[in-house]
Input
Amino acid sequence: MNFRTLLRLANLLTLLRLFLVPPLMLCFRANLMLPALLIFGFAAATDHLDGKIARRQGVTGFGTFMDPLADKLLVAAALICLTRFEGVEGGLVPAWMVVTIIGREFIVTGLRVVFVTRYGEVVSANRWGKYKTLSQLIVLLISLALLAFWGDVAMIVHPRGPIYFMMYLPLVLTVVSGLEFLLRNRKFLTDLMQTTDGDDSGVDE
Output
């Protein structure tokens, strides 16, 4: 990958999404939920936009790998902030949900890195991975909107409030997409466990 490839608009939007993670967490820490909503909404919009631009200009290896990674970091940052939400014991999202979602991301991302290192091919996300990401972004956007506009309502800032129940949708899709990833690439995983040369076919997230 050369510097010109890195400076493609789609790749710059992906990098921008990464740089928005610290401001998002700072807004949570300061309990500035409207700015947090605006930052997260803008970041989610860049995810949709850079995908459309990449399809027109051509997909790069950098974008294929970094785009889903930026999504994962953005979602993980928001989830961690929700599970440590100030003034709510146990957080708005229980830790076991966050650990399950982030754990899946670490496993899949780690396997993708191993695949790139061993076979020299970048793994792109398949439809289940995209459904999972979309559900995460939508539920988190709704959650931030509730906190920004109705955060003073006891029902909203409650450990078993609407945010908790909405989070089951991305949780289920996260688990399903992770299992689908492992099943789809069982030959690749078997090859890794046996540490022998095996099937060099690609894998789908």
About this structure: The chain has a mean pLDDT of 83. The CA atoms of residues 156 and 162 lie 6 Å apart. The longest helix spans residues 33-57.
